[in-house]
């Protein structure tokens, strides 16, 4: 996307880093590195991530990696796909192929093997990550994958659930101690870390504790939260996850009863309430998780 693209302009307001206009209206990310101000294109940042992933894989496998298959969101256009390929090249990788993320998820569950036994399969991939949410409807027939429709929300994910917990506990701290920590970045950062941990714990237990020593002005913050309360705080967001599912099915012109498999991707799909809402929507269907 160009720097002047309206979506870049609106997203910039939410990012903790600075973005400026570079050559040919290309968005450039401004970073302070070793006391110097540097500018990087998005694909350069992406290549750093790929380089790190390559190093991690090499240290685990014990040999050098030259080739890679890189996945991208199904809605990426040609220039976004090319930029991803360029990022791989900058990282020193030979990118054999760019494939769609929902296709990769379906392959990971071996659904391409199933379809060869059963004929055409309709697969809904529900991908709820840390910051984004994507729903895709694929058809698989004889090993051929076709993306029929995509939907989602580029500003919905685990961070939003964390924010609800943070706001809840900021209010509780104000109520208990008559102090407002909302303007203290360090206190909020420490509280957010504790909230994220609590959120994960609540996927496997029904109650957990939050403990942050000397959170603000030497005050220790100890409290508890139940899964039911967490669900209550986030219910509107969980319900919001179902809208793109309906839109995706509408766009693909497929009734939900004709979906053979529902595949869960992304850490936030571990939340029991999200699974329950999705399972209820598909009339009790078993989810691939």
UniProtKB/TrEMBL annotation:
GO biological process terms held by the UniProt record: response to stress
Gene Ontology molecular function: ATP binding; ATP-dependent protein folding chaperone
SUPFAM superfamilies recorded: Actin-like ATPase domain (SSF53067)
Record key words, sorted: ATP-binding, Nucleotide-binding, Stress response
Protein name: Mediator of RNA polymerase II transcription subunit 37-like protein
Gene (UniProt): Med37a
Cited Pfam families: HSP70
Family, as annotated: Belongs to the heat shock protein 70 family.
Organism domain of life: Eukaryota
